[in-house]
Specification:
- The structure is a homodimer.
- Chain A is 34% helix and 20% strand.
- Chain A has 2 domains: 134 residues, Cobalt-precorrin-4 Transmethylase, domain 1; 112 residues, Tetrapyrrole methylase, C-terminal domain (Methyltransferase, Cobalt-precorrin-4 Transmethylase, Domain 2), CATH 3.30.950.
- The termini of chain A are far apart.
- The first copy, chain A, has 9 helices and 10 strands.
- The radius of gyration of chain A is 20 Å and the shape is elongated.
- Chain A is an alpha/beta fold.
- Chain A has a 5-stranded parallel sheet with strand order 3-2-4-1-5, sandwiched between helices. Chain A has a 5-stranded mixed sheet with strand order 6-7-10-8-9, sandwiched between helices.
- The interface between A and B is large, with 61 and 61 residues.
């Protein structure tokens, strides 16, 4: 009997409050008890980041005691394909899943939100399918879906396109391409940026898009200090919002 | 002081277990306590379906007692734009938000999953932004994100395209168009179907797609009887899976 690969959602708060209100928010604000219970019993994890996974498990332990001591829980980091290292090879991924082949349940967890969405975990999930392991995704926060719902933009057709180019000219060209795509298919386009470039991306969007295009920003999702604004580009320009450079944000547009 | 529009995720089980194991699954398996607590205190709802919203609130009440009796809670159905009725007018939507303008918090809830995603709720969210109301999305299950994570397909670029045409020739053309789009942008394409057409859509996908294209199906997400399969079209054909005609499914492809 092989183990199951559980896809464990993480919070969106990166284990810290960005306000002055003290420790991290209660896990139960954003994670179902079902997922917390599962996290408390898994003996084995594949993680985007081992350190933040240990911090996550400490928060789990405050709600549901861990079945075994934290030190006894095996946490293996997913190899990083995007830092000059060779791409994730099927062989290395199958090694990470060896405990599941041996009958243990394994959790996959990322730094924030759903694993395998906007992070490198998908290759592990594909390896699990190739090994005929059972894959079970657990409910939890997804910044994309929270941002899309909060945008009020078309939720019946949407695309997530990841990061935009950093180079200004290439970024402007990409924004105009996305606006055209959005207009043609009436498809909401969602994108993210590293927080310290939030203001640069917002400026680039306001400069490149038509005034009638709708632009939504969700900043600090699930945080008490979070906000969601959805307006035409013209309205954003005539009444600007300042955006922090240390808080994750999701940007959405509909032309 | 105006009220807040809370976007309340619903379960994906439609209030029933599709197995023989008795009543609906525990709300806490899929919904965070934070969302359940909020649901228990909201005096006013806009709902895709009032009847299923009352059933949802009864389940909430089993975990966190409702602040006021169910009969005292105001539930207004969102006008249906897609049934020959006139499109949702800004005026009618602003009427639905009158309680929020008068200071009461309002919840928006759909039949399943995140409201305003793959359902008609987005117009209400846009109306709330136009009225400068605060919009707060709450964490919970999203069949799209669960299916995408479970697919192991590209989670860094994906699109949800809703329903495919029912007409066989138009459906095949649309599937081929999506395969081309997916190949060109390396973008996972997600779609849904009414459950009784699950088998027809699966067949159409297997017949229209290239053998090397990857196809994933998530059926009965969050249910004990649920399953997720991700394979090449060639593998699906040589080893078919039967798909039930009474259980919601999400289909994903990556060429």
């Amino acid at each position: 009997m092989t183990g199951v690969l559980y896809l464990m959602p993480n919070t969106l708060d990166f284990g810290v409050t960005l306000s002055e209100s003290g420790g991290p928010p209660d896990l139960q604000e954003v994670l179902p008890l079902g997922a917390i219970r599962m996290a408390a019993r898994l003996p084995c994890w594949v993680a985007e980041n081992a350190k933040t996974t240990r911090a996550f498990l400490k928060r789990v332990n405050e709600v549901v005691p861990l079945t075994q001591p934290l030190q006894a829980i095996v946490i293996t980091e997913l190899p990083r394909a995007n830092k000059g290292a060779p791409a994730l090879s099927p062989g290395s991924l199958q090694t990470l899943l060896a405990p599941a082949l041996a009958g243990q349940d394994v959790g996959l967890i990322s730094e924030a939100g759903m694993p395998a969405v906007a992070d490198p975990g998908a290759a592990l999930v594909q390896a699990a399918h190739a090994l005929k392991l059972r894959v079970v995704p657990l409910s939890g926060p997804s910044s994309m879906m929270l941002a899309l719902a909060a945008s009020g933009l078309n939720g019946q057709s949407f695309a997530f396109v990841g990061y935009l180019p950093v180079d200004a000219a290439a970024r402007t060209a990409r924004i105009r391409e996305l606006e055209t795509l959005s207009r043609r298919a009436q498809q909401t386009q969602l994108m993210i940026e590293t927080p310290y470039r939030n203001a640069a991306l917002l400026n680039a969007l306001l400069n490149a898009l038509n005034g009638s295009t709708r632009l939504a920003v969700s900043c600090g999702l699930t945080l008490a200090t979070g906000w969601n604004r959805s307006d035409t580009v013209a309205a954003w320009k005539s009444s600007p919002s300042s955006i922090p450079n240390d808080t994750p944000a999701v940007f959405s547009l509909l032309a």
